Amino acid sequence: MADPYYITTAIHYPNGKPHIGHAYETIAADVMARFQRLQGREVRFQTGTDEHGLKMAQKARDLGITPRELADEMSCHFRDLFDKLDISYDRFIRTTEDQHHRASQAIWQGMEASGDLYLDRYEGWYSVRDEAYYDESELEEGEGGEKLSPQGTPVEWTVEESWFFRLSKYQEPLLALYRDNPEFIQPDSRRNEVIRFVEGGLRDLSVSRTSFDWGVKVPGAEDHVMYVWVDALTNYLTGLGYPDETADMTKFWPADLHLIGKDIVRFHAVYWPAFLMSANVAVPKKVFGHGFLLNRDGKKESKSAGNVTDPSELADLYGVDPLRYFLLREFSFGQDGSYSAEAIVNRNNAELANSYGNLAQRTLSLLYKNCEGYLPPINGHTEEDKALFEHVDRVISKEMPAAFDKLAFAQGLEAWMGAVFACNAYIDAQAPWALKKTDFERMKTVLATLYIVIAQLTVAISPVIPASSRKLLDAMGIAYELRTIEGIRSHWYSPLSEADYQLDKPEGLFPRLELPEAEGEGG
Ligand code: ME8
After folding, report:
1. How far apart are the first and last CA of the chain?
2. How many of the other CB atoms lie within 10 Å of CB of 30?
3. Ligand 1 atom at shortest distance from the alpha carbon of 236
4. Helix or strand or coil: residue 125?
5. d(CA 366, CA 373)
6. Ligand 1 centroid – CA 113 distance (Å)
7. Residue nearest to atom 12 of ligand 1 (CA)
């Protein structure tokens, strides 16, 4: 059995409904989780909502409800969205769960036992929107001369009694971690930023608040609640049963991948490993900071900027699988990308509908009409058949896995599309519809060859378009146990017995999409 694999998304602030950035990150994590399962690994995939902190407390106050009511309502929207988007998470965590309070208090006590916590007074800048402390030197000036965080959010001067974490003590251990594990922070541009930040010197971090009480109580100092990031980051352990020594902790910790956006790399690549080292818990293997999704005006979607596209509406408009495919195919994952309705429609029509969908439809219709829905036996392959098998096998067993392993989804999908083009070139050159009259036996071999490579390409793309792949593999009569890369490769090039494969009457998989009438902002 291959190594177990533990992947997490950031946990989302449920201070409003989910936006397209949340969908983007969670879809990418889902693709990765499904891809690892396809390689035969036992996967744990966790997502959830980050429900404490001042931002939640203030939003609830503005709405005249309790933070708990706000979290309950909004957390449901995230769950509903993820169900709709076919997200195969194993655990949806909410930081208001009792178990999570217990885990956060255990991490706190671990840091305390190492002598890394002390009581002092915090005086400095805080951004509620980012839930982050900033040094004066990091601030920028807004248009009206006001002070803004590096993310462009307002900051307020904060003075209060606070527990501090000795982050300064971890400067050298962190630099050693980055040096010894070049893959720990990816992509490299983010890694370099973090290294520069840590080399610049680390100040101790304020890790508790007394001016509000919406959070996890500090053990032994109950008038303090933990700084929201201390509890938020601990969610990755809570889901495995920490602080108990559970079988899941042994199997899945340290996490293989924390998938997060570029704005929160510092929390994951600096604070989190420092907290863990202090509490004597192993650090995760990799933190990947993906780019932002921008709308067509190049603006970041965010609840606070008020330019939010409802991802659920996008899914209704274009279909879940076309949306998932588009998001991973269109952008280089580490970089920002702008999306628009035209771009989604074009990708779907050119690639899913015309190239892949048509290929499957043409092949299965010919098999259905001429071979009574059974896969015919193969009578010897020509050089063209072998070249096609080799191309497809290279893509599904080498090129796609190599790209997906480094989260270069667009590159993996480019290789997949290249193989689909090769199949289309093959069907056009072999012209099975013409062979029907001239060489019926050869026609059967051509169709059987296409059937095998389409099944292989469909299994390989299934992490990205799970519902459509399932539908096609069902229609092709492909057994469940063959729906892994190893399983489907076992039919590479080999004759299939006709009894096993009975086709359903083929139906179109990807309808061509039209641009919506009044094309809205950003999609
Ligand atoms: O940061 N495009 O929550 P969050 C792509 N609760 N990704 C985006 C995005 C965009 N336009 N906007 C946000 C938090 N994201 C914390 C995380 S983890 C222990 C705590 C990403 O709801 C963002 O980078 O603001 C983050 O990874 C995730 O969405 C949740 O953002």
Report:
1. 43
2. 24
3. 19
4. strand
5. 9
6. 32
7. 21
Kindly give the distance from the C-alpha atom of residue 395 to the centroid of ligand 1, in angstroms, as a whole number: 32
- Residue 35 CA to residue 29 CA, distance in Å, equals 10
**Domains of the chain, CATH where assigned:** 5-309 (3.40.50.620), 344-492 (1.10.730.10)
CB contact set of 448 (below 8 Å; sequence gap of 6+): 375, 376, 377, 378, 496
Question: Residue 319's Cα: distance from chain center in Å?
Answer: 18
By DSSP bridging, strand 43-49 and strand 5-9 are: parallel
Sign of the Cα torsion 230, 235, 236, 238 reads positive
pLDDT tens digits, 112-142: 999 999 999 999 999 999 999 999 999 999 9
What HEC string does 226-271 produce?
A: ECHHHHHHHHHHHCCCCCCCCHHHHHHCCCCEEEEEHHHHHHHHHH
User: What distance separates the 2 farthest-apart alpha carbons in the chain?
Assistant: 89
| Token pair 């989260």 in the structure block, residue | 407
Half-sphere exposure of 289 (CA within 13 A, CB side): 20
Q: For a pLDDT cut of 70, what percent of the chain falls above it?
A: 94
Whose CA is closest to atom 23 on ligand 1? 261
Q: Please give the pLDDT value at position 509.
A: 86
Provide the residue type at 117 as one letter: L
Using CB atoms within 10 Å of the CB of residue 117, give its burial: 0 to 12 exposed, 13 to 18 middle, 19+ buried: buried
Q: Please report the atom of ligand 1 found closest to the CA of residue 263.
A: 24
For residue 261, the ligand 1 atom closest to its alpha carbon is: 24
Confidence (pLDDT) at 372 = 84
146 Cα: distance to centroid of ligand 1 (angstroms): 25
Pocket test of ligand 1: the residue of 47, 50, 70, 327 to mutate, having most ligand atoms within 8 Å of its CB, is 50
Question: Which residue puts its alpha carbon closest to atom 8 of ligand 1?
Answer: 21
**What residues does 154 pair with on adjacent strands?**
148
How many Cα atoms occupy the beta-carbon half-sphere of 167 within 13 Å? Answer: 20
Assign 3-class secondary structure to 368-436: HHHCCCECCCCCCCCHHHHHHHHHHHHHHHHHHHHHHHCCCHHHHHHHHHHHHHHHHHHHHHHCHHHHH
Positive or negative, the CA dihedral 399, 404, 407, 413 is positive
pLDDT of residue 304: 63
Residue 304 neighbours by CB distance under 10 Å: 17
Phi, psi angles (nearest 5°) of residue 238: -50, -45
pTM for the whole thing? 0.95
| 509 CA → ligand 1 middle, Å | 33
Q: Which numbered atom of ligand 1 lies nearest the CA of 294?
A: 11
User: What is the model's pLDDT at position 523?
Assistant: 39
Ligand 1 site: residues with CB under 6 angstroms? 10-13, 21-22, 24-25, 50, 232-233, 235, 260-261, 263-264, 292-293, 300-302
**CA atoms within 13 A of residue 137's CA, in its CB half-sphere:** 4
